[in-house]
Specification:
About 35% of the residues lie in helices and about 20% in strands. It has about 450 residues and is α/β, with parallel strands linked by helices. The protein has two domains: about 5-165 and about 335-440, FAD/NAD(P)-binding domain, CATH 3.50.50; about 170-235 and about 270-330, FAD/NAD(P)-binding domain. Helix 3 packs antiparallel against helix 4 (about 90-95). The protein is globular and about 65 Å long. The relative contact order is 0.17. Bound molecules: flavin-adenine dinucleotide. Flavin-adenine dinucleotide (FAD) binds near residues 53, 59 and 344.
């Protein structure tokens, strides 16, 4: 059962997703009592937000590899856990060749076990945080208020783990979505949708979400037009080059001036596309059957049409494709990256003059919010809005990197008495064992790499 009233905590986590589970589990592992940590959010399971996006996208395995998991310490890795669970060495062999991707049901089973065993939901206050106020007396801390300005607690340290901003659409499509005759035929890749087998769909973009949608539409027999503004991007398995996942890569990235970090992110995160056996085969079959084509250009006009929509496409890279009749448009354009689109962050920026450039917070290298973050009372950011410091901040590995360092800082500031080595080992093994048992009960997903 979630909490019924406000309380004082050592750590408040704003947000109830994957990031919250990592910070909570690490804090408890380090020695905080569960009731010293409060999670703020309305979901009763930390998987809910991600699970909905993954379902809408038809994702079956993670893009990331064996290190992406939710136990408080790194060993056993996910591949080892799956070997243990299913009694097969294959995940470990795949992992040695960097061709192992945990199944989505497996990872969800693991997070659910960790959250349930450590009491994540029992320490959740079911409100959205609308305002944070920095107080200095009697000692530095934060007051928390909900969206209706009701008081919802106090905390010494706060982690902002609020996930992504709103879904992003090209301006013409954003406007057409508000118009009833066209609105329900334009969706984001991350939104729920159903493809008609005899339909013809335009999928914008060539990132991982768009590639998934090509496959989803082709699978039901529909036709797909892949629409790219520019010729195809570099092949890339995750959103970030693998070298940036390692401490040295992060150090090099953090050493760049802020403007260069932004320019670099803009380059590497732009429409990266993984090449997967499953997708490639489906697309090749679609091409052979005349059900898949690629067009370079942009939609500049859109109106209702006999098939549902009529769209006009112009191209800067060749002759204009002109007018097309299509059933719907799927936009794989991801999330709005500007922090100013998130009400709580916008209020903090405006009230405390937190520096922002090109919609990105100028975070400290420890992901602290400048002007508000103190060693004795931390205010820290994780997830997508921290990727100006940790380039893979919006991956499970990035969440772990930021969340664990934050929890260690809090434990140091609060002089928390660490659990003994054997207590931590026992906790890790028992969580791993229960996760392995839970994984046995969920469907094993086919590896795609
Ligand atoms: C479709 C998809 C596939 C992905 N695949 C992978 C993958 O294969 N490998 C990988 O490593 N990563 C992957 N990721 C990224 C990974 O899921 C995210 O990094 C992770 O979910 C981010 O965790 P988070 O806690 O920051 O945000 P979320 O999990 O999005 O949770 C944030 C939560 O905070 C809540 N919230 C927001 N504002 C407030 C507020 N003011 N008060 C209270 N609560 C609030 C939100 O409602 C939400 O429930 C994927 C992401 C998506 C969308």
């Amino acid at each position: 059962m979630p909490l019924e009233g406000p309380r004082d905590s050592s750590i408040a986590i704003v947000g109830d997703g994957f990031g919250s589970a990592i910070v909570f589990a690490t804090a408890v592992y380090l020695g905080f009592r569960p009731d010293q940590v409060t999670i703020y959010g309305t979901n009763d399971n930390p998987v809910n937000t991600y699970q909905q996006f993954a379902f809408n996208l038809g994702q079956t395995v993670l893009r990331s590899e064996s290190e992406s998991h939710f136990l408080p310490a790194d060993w056993p890795t996910f591949a080892q856990l799956e070997c243990w669970s299913r009694g097969s060495p294959s995940p470990m062999f795949r992992s040695i060749g960097r061709k192992y991707n945990p199944g989505v049901p497996d990872i969800l089973a693991e997070v659910t076990v960790v959250a349930r065993r450590l009491g994540w939901n029992d320490n959740r206050f079911p409100r959205h945080v609308g305002w944070l106020q920095r107080e200095h007396r009697p000692s530095p801390h934060f007051l928390l208020f909900d969206e209706e300005a009701n008081y919802i607690g106090r905390a010494k340290h706060v982690m902002l783990a609020m996930g992504h901003g709103p879904l992003s659409f090209p301006p013409l499509l954003a406007k057409a979505r508000e118009d009833p005759p066209t609105g329900d035929r334009i969706v984001q890749a991350y939104e729920p949708k159903v493809y008609a087998p005899d339909g013809r769909y335009v999928v914008i973009g060539a990132g991982i979400a768009s590639v998934n949608e090509w496959a989803n539409a082709l699978d039901v027999g529909a036709k797909v037009i892949s629409l790219l503004r520019n010729p195809a991007p570099d092949e890339q398995d995750l959103n970030t080059p693998r070298c940036l996942f390692e401490a040295r890569g992060i150090d090099v990235f953090q050493g760049l001036p802020f403007e260069q970090r932004i320019a670099f992110l803009g380059k590497i995160l732009k429409g990266t596309t993984p090449k997967r056996r499953g997708w490639a085969a489906r697309v090749q079959r679609g091409v052979a059957e005349g059900r898949f084509e690629q067009i370079i250009g942009e939609i500049d006009r859109l109106e209702p049409g006999p098939a549902g929509l009529r769209i006009h496409i112009t191209s800067r890279h060749g002759p204009d494709p002109g007018w097309l009749d299509v059933t719907g448009v799927i936009s794989g354009t991801g999330f709005v990256k500007s922090v100013l689109t998130v009400p709580l962050l916008r209020r903090l920026v405006e009230h405390y003059n937190v520096p922002v450039e090109e919609g990105r917070l100028k975070l400290r290298t420890n992901c602290g919010i400048p002007g508000l973050d103190m060693a004795v009372s931390r205010l820290c950011m994780m997830g997508i809005f921290a990727n100006t410091v940790i380039p893979h901040g919006d991956t499970i590995a990035g969440l772990k990197y930021i969340g664990r360092r934050f929890a260690v800082d809090c434990a140091r500031a609060e002089r928390v008495r660490q659990r003994s080595f054997f207590a931590r080992l026992g906790m890790q093994l028992s969580l791993a064992g229960e996760s392995a048992r839970a994984m046995k009960t969920v469907r094993r997903m086919e590896q795609l790499a």
